[in-house]
């Protein structure tokens, strides 16, 4: 995996995390499934980077 692809994927994950954080900070509840999706995305990125 090249550095540009890694950067794009990390950026996409960061955008998603930021959106969830804004919602939570605004008093909105976030479903556990959304948080689990972020964790799953992060695990997949780490798995691919490690191989």
Mean pLDDT: 90
| Number of contiguous helices | 2
End-to-end CA span = 9 Å
Computed over alpha carbons, the radius of gyration is 13 Å
Strand content: under 5%
Instruction: Specify the biggest β-sheet.
Output: none
Write the layout of secondary structure elements.
Layout: H1 3-25, H2 32-50
Helix pairs in contact: 1-2
Describe the fold and architecture:
82% of the residues lie in helices and 0% in strands. The model has no long low-confidence stretch (mean pLDDT 90). The longest helix has 23 residues. Helix 1 packs antiparallel against helix 2. The protein is elongated, with a radius of gyration of 13 Å. It is an all-alpha fold and 51 residues long. It contains two helices and no strands.
In a nutshell, what does this entry contain?
With 51 residues, the chain is an all-alpha fold.
Considering the chains and any ligands shown, give keywords for the structure.
mainly alpha, 2 helices, 51 residues, 82% helix, single chain
């Amino acid at each position: 995996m090249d550095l540009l692809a890694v950067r794009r994927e990390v950026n996409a994950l960061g955008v998603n995390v930021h959106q969830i954080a804004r919602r939570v900070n605004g008093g909105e509840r976030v479903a556990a499934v959304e948080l689990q999706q972020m964790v799953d995305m992060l695990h997949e990125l780490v798995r691919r980077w490690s191989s």
